[in-house]
Structures are given as structure tokens and as C-alpha cells.
Write a structure and sequence with these properties.
Helix content: 25-40%
Pathway: Protein modification; protein ubiquitination
Strand content: 5-15%
CATH architecture of the largest domain: 3-Layer(aba) Sandwich
Largest sheet: 8 strands, mixed
Distance between the termini: 43 Å
Family: Belongs to the ubiquitin-activating E1 family.
Radius of gyration: 29 Å
CATH superfamily of the largest domain: NAD(P)-binding Rossmann-like Domain
CATH topology of the largest domain: Rossmann fold
Shape: globular
Bound molecules: adenosine-5'-triphosphate, zinc ion
GO molecular function: ATP binding; ligase activity
Protein name: SUMO-activating enzyme subunit
Organism: Cyclotella cryptica
Number of domains: 3
Structural class: alpha/beta
Length: 779
């Protein structure tokens, strides 16, 4: 019997007791763990924590249980659908904690408690640095970058170790982030950004199914969204006029055609028709008629229904006939391989007939069926009618799990594919894959990764216990030595392992989060307003939550509970160049602080007037650069490019010096983000928005370094072996990101299936890889 195992140990804990020295077990039993996310990985983790004897766990999750979660989030049953995930998961896990006998835990006699918090980790008021500081360590089981970034920053600011994990299909990884260990943080490496398509491709020249799906999602926003002006398809009067003028330059015929299809208010036929169907929706949803009176107003209802059907038909004709003819009339496709073909008027006439049953309402309906154009039209009409006849408004944003939204997007995107001769036509099932960019979740990978996380938790607790006993000088040093970045691979390594541990990577010196590096930002300071800078860059790209912005040492904007929003409101609409304290021009250093994340950064601005984007050259083949037009101003920026070589105004300040010094080795900056398509970055950063981070694709680089010794390290006997492995691994794991990516690409050409699969996700041919957000879903 081992040191910690007693005759009274419950059988389920005996294995753990046999493996762990008694003090470590006691450390586990009294530790306080925070788990963020109780979905796929989170459920596995909760079960592992409970069965390993962890008694004090808090769980944060914002979501409720959906039917689609049940196949892999095994703590949930169908009776739990609609209930808070964290509550159900905590209760289920609590039942699994083996009862303890006094001898097991001398230090802690408080009863076990798994406490759920049904909330958003982004909520500053509830989940802040002092809260995080009450835990021994934090475990992440999240599915998005924003939340991960937030936990990363909270943990760095609190000095609490974080065990980060992610999966994408068969691939997964686990790592440990700890400020005091001096290792890479979550934001040291760039994450894949939302895939962005040039507006012109989506609006006029789609060539792949994914373009049609993106268009259909924008159409959903235009038809049902709360803010139609946020749809990429929305046209204000100015852009309509600009389009008309441009068309006039092209040829006279174009102008005539354009004039024919816009009304006096400058609205396109599409907008007029979707307006019409929306008005029908409004008039129906505002109709307060009690349901019982319906039969007495049958004929009135019949009339109303036929009005709705007519409005739907008009909208569809505008979308798939009038608008297409207009574009053809403007000679937009004169060099295209195939000119689009508007939908048949006959199909459009038939689609409103009451007796035609939409495909999804038929008895033999299967989500893998492919709908004909006529069926797609009927399906769209049924969506319009459903919205009109329902008392609850549709979701303002497209959600792949919303049944109506998915039917609408499948039908609309397929109709667009038919018009533009794009193949293959998608079933609802495959369109959902593209729309949500879904890589099927594999429960086994989640389970493996959650197991690895608990092993890392043992390592951290061991370090904390060793520190308490004066065996090591600092916890961080111990973590750096004991903990591992572990990849879960699809194919076995040469030595036959699927788990590949490496030493924790060193921080990226250019990381503004953990290394306080100056951020370089290029944009047009004469066009960008403070509001654009705030929303597009400071909040969205850099993840600030309550920023204070300083120019020339003076506050130009501030947010917070006790801040009067009107105080700096007038600055928001000002162009950067016109801001107080001398404005922001080429070389200006902007300060940004966020006390909710204990983060302060400096942004060195480069003024840049003209922006280009590489697009497919349909005529000559290959790529060509086109100048970005005015509509995309907020997409015209670059983070992490070259900083101004001689910052004019700030040249003598310390900030400027920092800026200048860091310019030389800036080329491989991992925070380079272009807010537009086809930058090298997108290829560089695979699947970071899914359950995994960008690391998994680099797994191939460490294949030769395989050594699974750290799986047994908890027993303390393998430290040397791991240290030796660390040295071997260091050069690979510290390699600049671009170099590692190049090696990765090369290896893929050599035909490793696992890696090919990963690359396939990054290539246009795998449609699902092209969309904005990558999510893991049920398989
Ligand atoms: N900001 C956040 N605050 C709290 N919990 C979050 C936050 N963002 C995501 N989560 C939770 O993280 C969990 C991630 O789990 P998972 O990746 O299995 O996603 P899922 O939504 O359960 O499944 P899927 O998206 O595949 O249908 C989810 O339960 C989700 O609610
Ligand atoms: Zn970092």
C-alpha cells in the first residue's frame, strides 16, 4: 500500500492514492479550482476532477443545454435541454465525488462544493482579478478566442496558473500559462482571424459555395436582422449613387439599367422587396387579434396570407432575377467564364402556390437531400411565412442551430449557386457545416485532452506544495520545469505515440499582453475616427474591455462604471488627426489602459493612405491587387507591420525609443493581423477559433522529439528525462512562427494524412474552412 492509501480509501480513489504522495493528495483535496466552460471538454474535466477527489470547484458557463450537445456532453440528458449547462454539470459531477474519510484530508474538513455560475466570463463585475485570485489554478474548456483571451489576461494579472486546452476533430493540445513561470501566454502567438471576403466577391462575383453561404447569411441579416445597415448587402443612398456613377462610366446602358431598378429614395429592388416582406412581418406581429377570433376572419386571413406570399415572391424575384439582370446589364460579367443565369420566372410563379410543400416539411425529408431551385424557392417562402405568422421575432443574428435560419440560408445560398453555376449544391447538412465552419467534435479527443489537463493540474499543485514546504524557490520555476505543452496527434509518431509533449514555449518578445511590447498600427489617420479605432481595433482586435485612451498623455476617451459617457462622446466622431492634444498622426504613440485586465499598452501609429487587396484574377488567372474602396475603411488597417522608422513628434520620448528599437525584429511579429482577405496570416493561423488554438497544426514539427515521459512525471522519478527532452525540444518550439509554418507546409506536401487533413481545412477546396468562425460541433 502506498504512502497515501489507507484501508478506508474508497475503491475509486485507490489508483490515485497509490500514485500520489500523501501531501500532494491533501493539496488536491484542499485546492480551489475554477473551470471556465462546461461543454465538450468541460464535462470531461468535471468528471475527471470529481473522480480524482477535487472537492472545491467553481464552474462558469453562459450557455444552456441544446439537443445537439447530448451526444458528447455526457453529463447532460434530454430532460436537461434548456437548463444551464454549468448547473446540470456541477450537480452531476458532485454525485461522483468519492466520500472521504478523515484520514484522507487533515487540512480541509469543509464539505465538497461544485458551484455553478451561469454567466459570461467577460463580465467584469462578477469575474475579476480578486475573484480569480481565490483559486489555486484555472482550467479553460472554451470554444472561442475572445473568452480565452479574457481568461488569459485575468490569470496573468492575478498570477494564477491557467491550463489552456483545445480540440479540433482528432487534434488537440494542452498547455500551461503562468506569469511567474516566464512561459508563452495564450496571446503570444497569432490566432486565426475571421476569414473575410472582399465585398465585391460576395455581392457580385461569387465563385465558391462558401461565397454563396456568406451572402445568404448577410441576406438573413438584411431580411430579419435588428440592424439591416449592418448587412454587407445593405446599400445606403450614397453608395447607390456611387454605383450608378461608376456604371455610367462603364457604359450608358448600365446607367439606364441602374436607374430602372432603383426608386427615388435610392433603394434597390432587393431592399424594396425585403422591406415589403418585413412590413408584412411587422403588420402580422403587431396584430393583436386573439387566436380564437381567427376562424371568423378566415377570408381576411386568406387575403393576408396571399399578400404575404406575393411579397415573398417579389423579394425573391428582386434577388434572383432583377438584381442579376441589373448586374449583367452593367457588363460586370463581360470577362467571366460564365454569365449568371437568373432564376426561371415559372419557378418563381409556382413557389407561392399554397399546395406546394417545402422539402423540410415532407415525410421523406432528410437533411442530406439536395433541393432543386423550385424547392429552394418554396423553402424560402415558407421561412418568410413562418416569420410573419410567429409572435416571436426571428433571431437578429444568424445562428446555425436555429432551424429556420439554417433552412433560409441553405435555400438562399443554393439559389445563388444555381444562378452563378457554382457547384456543388449543398444539402442543409453540408450547408450547416459551411455556415458554422464546423469540424466534427470527437468525444475521445475531448476526453484525452481533459485527462491531460488534470495531469497538468497535478503538476501545478505539486509545485505549490513543494514551494510551501521550501523544496523549491518559486512555484513558477517549478511549473516551467514540470509542466508540458502536449499535442494530441491523429497519426502515431515514429515511436508509436499519439501524445507529443514538449517544454512550455518561451514568451514571444513582441507580445503586448505578457511582454508589454509596443503595438504598431497602420491606418489612415485622416479617415479613421476615434470610434472606429475604439470598436474595430482596441476592442475587437486587441480585446480591451473598458479602455482608457490617451493621446500625448491626455485622456481622450474613458469607459467604466463611474465614468460619465458624455464626457468624451464628442471625441468619438473626430478623425484621429483632429483629436485633442495634437491629434494622432504618423508616429504618434497612443496609450491604452484597462484596469479590468490590469493591462497597459502603447500603440505606435503609422499613417497609410492607400490599401490594396489580392483577389483572384478571373481573366489572366492568378491573383491581382485591387485598391480597396471607401466602403471598407474600417477594414483597412494592419497591426504588427513596420513601425515608422523615425517617429516625428515622439522621436525624443522613451516610447518612441522603444518603438524604434523593436522595429528591427518586427518582421515575424505574431500579432500581425490584417482586417482583410488573403493575407499570409490566414494561412499561418489554422483553426484558432475552434476548440483548439493555433498550435495543433505545428504538431508535426515536434514529431521527432517524441517523449511521453511527462505523463508519468507525477511520481517524480522522470525529471531528468524530461529535462533532457526539454533541451531537445527547445530549438523547435522557439522557432519563429513563419519558419515553423513553412516547415509545416513542406511536410504536408509529403503526404502525411493527418496533416493533409489539417491543410484541407485551410484550403478553399474544403469549403468549410473558408468561413469566419470555426466551431466544433457534434459528429
Ligand atoms: N464567454 C463565455 N463565458 C462563459 N462560458 C463560455 C463563454 N464562451 C463560451 N463558453 C462556453 O464554453 C463551452 C465550450 O464548449 P463546446 O466547445 O463543447 O461548445 P458547445 O457550445 O457546447 O458545443 P457546439 O458549439 O459544438 O455546439 C460552451 O458550453 C460555452 O457556453
Ligand atoms: Zn504573451
Amino acid at each position: 500500500m502506498s504512502t497515501s492509501e489507507s484501508s478506508s480509501t474508497p475503491p475509486i480513489l485507490r489508483g490515485i492514492h497509490a500514485a500520489l504522495p500523501a501531501p500532494l493528495l491533501s493539496q488536491i483535496l484542499s485546492s480551489r479550482i475554477l473551470l471556465v466552460g462546461s461543454g465538450g471538454i468541460g464535462c470531461e474535466l468535471l468528471k475527471n476532477l470529481a473522480l480524482s477527489g477535487f472537492r472545491h470547484v467553481q464552474v462558469i458557463d453562459l450557455d444552456t443545454i441544446d439537443v445537439s450537445n447530448l451526444n458528447r456532453q455526457f453529463l447532460f440528458r434530454s430532460r436537461h435541454v434548456g437548463m444551464a449547462k454549468c448547473k446540470v454539470a456541477s450537480e452531476a459531477a458532485m454525485q461522483m465525488i468519492p466520500p472521504l474519510h478523515n484520514a484522507d484530508n487533515d487540512d480541509d474538513d469543509t464539505p465538497p462544493a461544485y458551484v455553478p455560475h451561469h454567466g459570461n466570463i467577460l463580465d467584469n463585475n462578477q469575474f475579476h482579478v480578486p475573484y480569480i485570485q481565490t483559486f489555486s489554478l484555472v482550467l479553460n474548456a472554451l470554444d472561442n478566442i475572445t473568452a480565452r483571451r479574457r481568461v488569459n489576461r485575468l490569470c496573468l494579472a492575478s498570477g494564477i496558473p491557467l491550463i489552456e486546452a483545445g480540440t479540433a476533430g482528432y487534434l488537440g493540445q494542452v498547455t500551461v500559462i503562468d506569469k511567474n513561470a516566464g512561459v508563452e501566454c495564450y496571446e503570444c502567438q497569432a490566432k486565426s482571424t475571421q476569414k473575410v471576403y472582399p465585398i465585391c466577391t460576395i455581392r457580385s462575383t461569387p465563385s465558391m459555395p462558401v461565397h454563396c453561404v456568406v451572402w445568404a447569411k448577410e441576406l438573413y441579416k438584411l431580411c430579419f436582422g435588428g440592424k439591416v445597415e449592418e448587412s454587407m448587402l445593405f446599400e445606403d443612398e450614397e453608395s447607390l449613387r456611387a454605383e450608378k456613377d461608376g456604371a455610367a462610366d462603364e457604359n450608358d446602358l448600365a446607367e439606364k439599367s441602374s436607374a430602372d431598378t432603383t426608386d427615388g429614395a435610392g433603394k434597390t429592388d432587393t431592399e424594396k422587396s425585403t422591406d415589403a416582406s418585413n412590413k408584412s412581418v411587422d403588420s402580422t406581429t403587431n396584430n393583436n387579434e386573439p387566436p380564437g377570433e381567427k376562424s371568423t376572419h378566415q377570408s381576411k386571413d386568406d387575403n393576408f396570407e396571399s399578400t404575404l406570399r406575393l411579397a415573398a415572391q417579389q423579394a425573391l424575384t428582386a434577388l434572383f432575377v432583377t438584381e442579376i439582370n441589373k448586374q449583367i446589364g452593367m457588363n460586370r460579367y463581360k470577362n467571366a467564364e460564365k454569365v449568371p443565369l437568373p432564376l426561371s420566372l415559372e419557378d418563381l410563379e409556382k413557389c407561392t402556390a399554397t399546395e406546394v410543400i417545402p422539402p423540410t416539411q415532407r415525410k421523406d425529408y432528410q437533411p442530406t437531400q439536395i433541393w432543386s431551385p423550385a424547392e429552394c424557392l418554396v423553402e424560402m417562402v415558407s421561412c418568410f411565412l413562418q416569420v410573419s405568422n410567429s409572435s416571436t421575432p426571428p433571431l437578429p443574428e444568424f445562428d446555425k442551430d436555429d432551424e429556420m435560419a439554417m433552412r433560409f440560408v441553405t435555400a438562399a445560398s443554393n439559389l445563388r449557386s444555381y444562378v452563378f453555376h457554382i457547384e456543388p449544391i449543398q444539402s442543409l447538412y453540408s450547408a450547416k457545416g459551411i455556415a458554422g465552419n464546423i469540424i466534427p467534435a470527437i468525444a475521445t479527443t475531448n476526453a484525452i485532452v481533459a485527462g491531460l489537463q488534470v495531469l497538468q493540474a497535478f503538476h501545478i499543485l505539486k509545485c505549490q506544495w513543494m514551494y510551501k514546504n521550501g523544496e523549491i524557490e518559486d512555484v513558477g520555476g517549478g511549473i516551467k520545469k514540470l509542466c508540458r505543452y502536449t499535442y494530441c496527434l491523429r497519426e502515431k509518431t515514429r515511436r508509436g505515440y499519439i501524445l507529443q509533449p514538449t517544454t512550455l514555449p518561451l514568451p514571444n518578445p513582441n507580445c503586448f499582453v505578457c511582454r508589454n511590447a509596443v503595438i504598431s498600427l497602420s491606418l489612415n489617420t485622416k479617415e479613421w475616427t476615434l470610434q472606429m479605432l475604439l470598436t474595430r481595433v482596441i476592442k475587437k482586435e486587441l480585446g480591451f474591455s473598458q479602455p482608457t485612451i490617451l493621446v500625448g498623455g491626455d485622456i481622450v476617451y474613458e469607459e467604466g462604471d463611474d465614468i460619465d459617457p458624455s464626457e468624451y462622446a464628442s471625441n468619438l466622431s473626430k478623425k484621429l488627426i483632429g483629436l485633442p492634444s495634437g491629434g494622432v498622426g504618423h508616429g504618434t504613440v497612443i496609450g491604452v489602459e484597462d484596469f479590468t485586465q490590469d493591462l497597459e499598452v502603447e500603440i505606435c501609429v503609422s499613417h497609410k493612405d492607400e490599401w490594396f487587396i489580392a483577389v483572384e484574377d478571373e481573366v489572366a488567372g492568378g491573383k491581382k491587387d485591387i485598391k480597396l474602396d471607401d466602403r471598407e475603411e474600417s477594414e483597412k488597417f494592419e497591426i504588427g507591420g513596420k513601425k515608422p522608422s523615425v517617429p516625428p513628434s515622439a522621436a525624443t520620448t522613451d516610447e518612441a525609443q522603444t518603438t524604434k528599437d523593436s522595429t528591427a525584429d518586427d518582421d515575424d511579429s505574431s500579432v500581425e493581423v490584417m482586417g482583410m482577405e488573403s493575407t499570409a496570416n490566414n494561412a499561418q493561423k489554422p483553426s484558432a477559433e475552434n476548440n483548439g488554438s493555433s498550435k495543433e497544426a505545428e504538431a508535426g514539427n515536434v514529431e521527432d522529439d517524441d517523449d511521453d515521459s511527462d505523463i508519468e512525471i507525477i511520481e517524480g522519478g522522470t525529471t531528468d528525462a524530461v529535462a533532457a527532452t526539454s533541451n531537445e525540444n527547445t530549438s523547435e518550439s522557439r522557432m519563429p512562427l513563419k519558419k515553423r509554418r513553412l516547415d509545416w507546409d513542406r511536410e504536408n506536401q509529403n503526404g502525411d494524412d493527418a496533416k493533409k487533413a489539417k491543410i484541407a481545412e485551410d484550403t478553399p477546396a474544403a469549403n468549410s474552412a473558408e468561413i469566419e468562425i470555426i466551431e466544433i460541433d457534434s459528429d
